């Protein structure tokens, strides 16, 4: 039944409690906007880290060539 699984998924997401101790669900609190910001920052940091690793690896490879 497609309608049943949809309602189940909706109910599950509504049940998620907000991590900021407001007692509300995430969907009812402004914290979800902060959460989204945190996620984007984390992604940017992750990409920067990957870039550093890549640069180091590139240097290592070039050093091995000599
Ligand atoms: Zn909250």
How would you describe this protein?
The protein has 66 residues and is an all-alpha fold. The chain has one domain. It has two helices and no strands. The model has no long low-confidence stretch (mean pLDDT 80). The structure holds zinc ion.
What's the gyration radius in Å? 21 Å
Q: Name the poorly predicted regions.
A: none
Structural class: mainly alpha
What fraction of the residues are assigned to beta strands by DSSP?
under 5%
The bound ligands are:
zinc ion
Distance between the termini: 64 Å
Biggest sheet details: none
- Strand count: 0
* Contiguous helical run count: 2
Give the SSE string: HH
> Tell me, what's the shape?
rod-shaped
Mean pLDDT, nearest integer? 80
Q: Percent of residues in helical segments?
A: over 70%
